[in-house]
Design goal:
The structure is a single chain. By secondary structure, the chain is mostly helical. It has one domain. Helix content is 71%, strand content 0%. Helix 3 runs antiparallel to helix 7 and helix 4 packs parallel to helix 8.
Amino acid sequence: MSGTDARVLTISPGTRSRTSITTFCALLWSGFRRYATYRQATAAGAFTNIVFGFLRCYVLLAVAAGAPGGRPGGYDPEQLATYVWVGQGLLVVVGIWGWTDLSDRIRSGDVAADLLRPVPPVTAYLAADLGRGLYGMLTRFVPPVVAGLLFFPFKTPDRWQTIPLFAVSVALAVIGSFGCRYLINATAYWLHDARGPLVFWTLASGVLAGLYFPLRLLPDWLAVTLWVGTPLPGLLQTPLDVLVERDGPAIQVGLVALQAVWAVVMVKAAAVVQKRAERKLVVQGG
């Protein structure tokens, strides 16, 4: 077009990989920009996380003070303080609550527009959710951690591999959380209203993900069952245990590997459910 800098994103056999990466990054950036517009909500949310951080920290430190040897579940007071405050920072990064975009669009019928786009819904929503998690890491993670450092002694890592392993674990937690939330939202394809499953998810995920208390406080058989049989401990418990070095290096790596397996399983399950839902819409004449 003469006089116009018109650039159209096309996909050809020679550029498919590069185009896919470019599209994914663009969707990720759009998710980041979307949540960056809510500055007052970000500040208010960070303040709320700090307030609840004090409540949770004092409760767990009181439990530690009354436990034999002062190490409930194998955590010393410094590890518990670190667990609480970093957990408060990760709560929004991982985002186990509050996402209803898919179920809202299914109920309104707007999901039909999503199905016409060249990017599959699971991929598009995953990219946007990673952008949301990145924004949360930059804005919601730091204030609770700084507040905790000012008032409580923290556990500093003794092993060099802990920090990179923690970063990998957090990324996997965001992906695994997305897969779980997508599946809960996708129930609206069959129920037409996912509020019931969402309420159940809100109640169960906080407990079973290790938000309210470390799962190591539970009986060993129950904690192991939750870890192996569900993806929920990988949402918060695993990255926090990695950071406070609750286990040795080999177990740390094993927990992150298990977390990676569950993240892949949940995203794959979301893709399968989405495909079945699309066939269901076609059969119903949608």
